[in-house]
Amino acid sequence: MDKFINNYIEGFMGSVVSRNPGEKEFHQAVREVVESVAPFMMDYPNLMDQKILERIVEPERIIIFRVPWMDDRGEIQINRGFRVQASSAIGPYKGGIRFHPSVNLSIMKFLAFEQTFKNALTTLPMGGAKGGSDFNPRGKSDAEVMRFCQSFMTELFRHIGPNTDVPAGDIGVGGREIGFLFGQYKRLRDEFSGTLTGKGIAWGGSLLRPEATGYGLCYFAEQMLATRGESFEGKKVNISGAGNVAQYAAQKAMRLGAKVQTLSDSDGFIYDPEGLNEEKMAFVFQLKNIRRGRIKEYVQKYPQAQYFPGERPWRIPCDIALPCATQNEVEVADAENIVKGGAICLAEGANMPTTPEAIKIIQGAGLLYSPGKASNAGGVATSGLEMSQNSMRTSWTAEEVDQYLRRIMSDIHAACVKYGTREDGTVNYVKGANIAGFIKVAGAMADQGLV
Ligand code: NDP
Ligand code: 2IT
């Protein structure tokens, strides 16, 4: 039987690779899901007959468009815009927008594919999508970012809507960009709607949406730790990234009693052996979100910390690793360091930050390990709560949103336990998350016929 399943997986992946040549991140994301769900699917011949897996790896729609804009010197710039609408099986397409020079079709497709399963796990009715551009916001003025966002939305607006597709933020897209995108959308449609999430509190945003991914990550990790009678209290935590997810993961971990030792950006990482505190966090928020500075400036302000240019934080021993920057940022050597440093848990805040080979090392060493689609789902879940508040034309208190968020993260954890518990009682969160997400989407697809 194992051989049969392996042949099935390799045959399936062979066709995915040849239909989507060169898209290595997409292949990686698909393989992980197929390896989890193939053995499960063998017991459901109707899912095989319906070719659910073959359909799920083919996005429902992909839009690629030119984004022309003018920089502050009056020079014309051309970028490429994307929206990958992967699945509308369980609700309107939903997922973030990424502005980063590395953005390409493979990265958009992997993110949209992951989003479909993640959104299914949230328990809320949202399909999967992702969008973005190879535009690099670094070093751009507010006026340039605004002109770019307006040009991007001038094409995107015709493909989205509150019941069609609801974008949000991701790398390089935060409150400022969502504001510019929303303003242009509203102007073009002459309609004030909940078509984007991550909006400002005064104009339809949800309390706690900025915090939600990082907080949700810590709530999920708390549940993982609890399966071994552990908690954040007194633990050394290493975090990569210094953006939205990293900042609020750091704040929550610290408030749960952990010592947060590291933050990073693409230029290097800082190590503060004394750990972050509320005052240092306030400095980081100001540095990153208002001044848009680099993380190395932390050591000018706090000289007991060290800055390591060109390196990632994983060689500093820790108990809990929370990668919150980007895909494939934890490679084999990093995973070996994490294990050697005595870590007990790696919970992903970023999307697919750990390479498949590194995952094997982490799981092989018996660490608690959760894939981003489970542990970072708090962000999109709270986007779903923002959509609900917009539809009801109301707003909930931070306490109400936090209660929902905690419950959703706990439900996702329970789903992982239900479908991922191994014979020895430990939990394979990858298998659990993939199967739980797949069951919901596949069932909806089977119900809705061949569309
Ligand atoms: P931000 O743009 O706010 O921050 C991104 C951080 O990661 C920055 O510190 C950035 O450094 C670093 N980074 C980005 N690209 C690279 C790279 N190629 N190599 C090294 N470092 C890099 O993004 P978010 O915090 O929103 O997103 C971080 C991750 O979390 C992403 O994987 C995203 O998909 C995921 N995520 C985000 C959610 C959200 O709600 N925002 C929800 C769920 C997942 P630098 O400034 O040098 O680029
Ligand atoms: O990867 C993600 O889940 C996000 N960037 C958040 C998407 C959303 O719609 O809030």
List keywords for this structure.
single chain, alpha/beta, Rossmann fold, 3 domains, seven-stranded mixed β-sheet, five-stranded mixed β-sheet, 17 helices, binds NADPH dihydro-nicotinamide-adenine-dinucleotide phosphate, binds (2Z)-2-iminopentanedioic acid
Structural notes for this entry:
- The protein has 451 residues and is α/β, with parallel strands linked by helices.
- It folds into three domains: 2-56, no CATH class; 61-191, Rossmann fold; 212-375, Rossmann fold, CATH 3.40.50.
- 49% of the residues lie in helices and 15% in strands.
- The protein has 17 helices and twelve strands.
- The strands form two sheets. Strands 9-8-7-6-10-11-12 form a seven-stranded mixed beta sheet, with helices on both faces. It has a five-stranded mixed beta sheet with strand order 1-2-4-3-5, sandwiched between helices.
- The model has no long low-confidence stretch (mean pLDDT 98).
- The chain binds NADPH dihydro-nicotinamide-adenine-dinucleotide phosphate and (2Z)-2-iminopentanedioic acid.
- NADPH dihydro-nicotinamide-adenine-dinucleotide phosphate binds next to helix 9.
Shape-level CATH architecture of the largest domain: 3-Layer(aba) Sandwich
Hetero ligands: NADPH dihydro-nicotinamide-adenine-dinucleotide phosphate, (2Z)-2-iminopentanedioic acid
Span of the ends, CA to CA:
31 Å
Calculate Rg over CA atoms.
Answer: 21 Å
- Which class best fits the helix and strand makeup? alpha/beta
CATH fold label of the largest domain: Rossmann fold
